[in-house]
Amino acid sequence: MSDAAPQQTPAPDYALPEGYTHVYSGKVRDLYEDPDGRLLFVASDRISAYDWVLPTPIPDKGRILTAMSLWWFDRLSDIVENHVISTRVPDAVARRAMVCTKLDMFPVECVARGYLTGSGLVEYRESKSICGVNLPPGLKDGSKLPKTIFTPATKAALGDHDENVTFDEVVAAIGQDEAQTLRRLTVLAYERAASIAADRGLILADTKFEFGIRADGRTVLADEVLTPDSSRYWPEETWEPGHAQPSYDKQYVRDWLTSPASGWDRNSGEAPPALPDEVVEKTREKYVEAYERLTGKKFS
Q1: Which are the contacts of 94, defined by CB distance < 8 A and separation ≥ 6?
Q2: Which of 18-27, 211-220, 253-262 is predicted most confidently?
Q3: Residue 137 belongs to a domain
Q4: What's the CATH number where 140 sits?
Q5: Percentages helix, strand, coil for the chain, rounded to the nearest 5?
Q6: 78-97 burial string, b = 16+ CB within 10 Å, else e?
Q7: What percent of the chain has pLDDT over 90?
Q8: Residue 146 structural domain
Q9: Has residue 163 been placed in a domain?
């Protein structure tokens, strides 16, 4: 999309009371400042694929993402504090928003990988390494890595790709101590989450975290955590290295967009078409299944 005009985020489908000031909208989340100067994170039902925000929402997606993030924040709280202050939010965004403290965000996507897939697989095939981390030969799509690796990326603007970078580049951007802290917290949080997921028959292949510095100088976990939007979950019972794995995410969306049925060429620079009802429903089912399988709770 680098040669196309910048994409505009669709307008929210809700209205907040007076006193809330819009700060920023990303592919999925809208950010506001509330009347007390705190931040309101709203997870919309928008879905993105191939660096486009699609014109068709996925019903309940924002509520599922918020519920999963809150569940995971609780389970990581002894490793790293998070930015959540309260879940008491305006009725218009009930169950899809959280009140959070303001942070000075690090300009780094903190990615942890335990398995080889995605952009990491592409880089490995070219250099037998990911983000400067050397890996043994002979690994396949879906292979378990010898150990968890930290593979950071730069944060991209809406419509652009995140760019994988080396740890040394992170050090140059934010400093040695800060970079080591982000790497340590990312690996610890991933390994805790992977262990919890494994107990539920799920493989957490990789995930992305974002961190910021609070006013008191503490590094805290922010944004969303360990949802199907930021993580790859695979059912353990079907895991078989050597090919793409079934996953709990927007794979139905990606598959349809790249199929003849969509009539869309991802290299054309043209916006993707609306999603058919069947794709919307199957995608929603995957998000619900991921939530219920992880938490043991029924989504309603």
Answers
A1: none
A2: 211-220
A3: yes
A4: 3.30.470.20
A5: 30, 25, 45
A6: eebebbbeeeebbeebeebb
A7: 86
A8: 104-238
A9: yes
Instruction: State yes or no: pLDDT of 159 exceeds 50.
Output: no
- Using DSSP's 3-state secondary structure scheme, residue 210 falls into strand
- At residue 148, what is the residue type? T
Q: What is the mean pLDDT of the chain?
A: 93
For the segment 51-95, what is each residue's pLDDT rounded down to a tens digit?
Answer: 899 999 999 999 999 999 999 999 999 999 999 999 999 999 999
pTM above 0.90, yes or no: yes
Number of domains in the chain: 1
Name the token pair of 170.
């992170």
CA–CA dist 287, 295 (Å, integer): 12
Backbone angles phi, psi at 271, to 5 degrees: -65, 145
Query: Is residue 21 domain-resident?
Result: no
With contact defined as beta carbons under 8 Å apart, do 194 and 114 qualify?
yes
Q: Three-state SS for 235?
A: strand
Closest among 39, 16, 29, 19 to 94, alpha carbons compared: 16
Q: Residue written as tokens 């054309």?
A: 268
* Strand ranges in the chain using DSSP code E only, listed in sequence order: 21-25, 29-33, 39-43, 48-49, 52-53, 84-86, 97-100, 104-105, 108-115, 129-130, 133-134, 144-150, 153-154, 163-164, 202-213, 219-222, 231-235
DSSP state of 32: E
Instruction: Read off the tokens for 285.
Output: 């089912």
Q: Does 115 fall in a domain? A: yes
